[in-house]
Amino acid sequence: MFGNQTMLNVTNEQQYQGTVERVLFSVMTTVPCCIFLYINLTMLFTLRTKTEFQETCRYILLFHLLFGDTVQMGLSQVLYVLAACRIKLAYPLCGVLTMISRLTSEISPLTLVVMSLERYIAVCHPLRHAIVVTSRSTRAAVAGVWAFSSLNVIVQVGLLLDFPFAELESLQMKDFCSHFALFLGPMSDIYEKAFTCSLFVSASLAVTSSYIGVMVAARSASTNKTSFQKARNTLLLHLVQLALTLSSTLYTLMLKALSRMTTRLIVVRVQSVLYLFVIIFPRCLSALIYGMRDKNIRPVLMQNLCCCCLTLLAVPADKQSFS
Asked: H/E/C letters for each residue in the chain?
């Protein structure tokens, strides 16, 4: 009886510790996610307030980069909160949410590649920049990015449909909804690894080659050093952000490898930490990097942020004075 009581106390203590950890990690992820979702949404609104932002190529690319990051961050947080609350979804609903999240997660690295190529053309081929990089060609490049990402999602959906769902007792998932839980067959696993590695290598080579090309052009040119320096710094930021963004594509593979080496409790704890630094943090950088560095965006963004904050603060004050 004493041994059974001791085991019961240990089990209760572990359950209490697990509840406290879930609440703590949920607060640690939800608060910064809401803050940066607010900043990203304000940035998206800012990019739609002026015709200059809607017609300039780099602002068009920035809008789609921010849009993908915002949708990805919002969906990831929804899935995280559902898992923290121990809510299990049906396979079809989880598949829809996961595939939308997967689609937007691939938009960011591919858009960064297009932005890097645009800066390379602007510095290394300035006479052809106005001809090659137009609002029409930029929108065509954005459409190509979305089409390529959608094609990958269609392939993944096809691999999921190949799984014999009819043999399952029910479509209710036995685990929490995640991309990791939808690896229902060996072909899905192989395709995920191949596509992730290909995306990682090709995007890294494209941005690195653009950075090297700008550096070589900067050394050989004798004039306009300020323009070269700005382009070099911009491409360096693209490279750092691409590394952080592509690390999120390895998120599922890292968790899957870790699950084979340790217990589920440790995997859940590591997953929460990785989620904060690999998923949330890279998605928060776009608005801060480009919004604060750009002289045209910064004053409008700060004005919109202040106006929204004052509006939110004025609502409780109005309710209080009314009451």
From this structure: CHHHHHHHHHHHHHHHHHHHHHHHHHHHHHHHHHHHHHHHHHHHHHCCCCHHHHHCHHHHHHHHHHHHHHHHHHHHHHHHHHHHCCCCCEHHHHHHHHHHHHHHHHHHHHHHHHHHHHHHHHHHCHHHHHHHCCHHHHHHHHHHHHHHHHHHHHHHHHHHHCCCHHHCCCCECCCCCCCHHHCCCHHHHHHHHHHHHHHHHHHHHHHHHHHHHHHHHHHHCCCCHHHHHHHHHHHHHHHHHHHHHHHHHCHHHHHHHHHCCCCHHHHHHHHHHHHHHHHHHHHCHHHHHHHHHCCCHHHHHHHHHHHHHHHHHHHHHHHHHHC
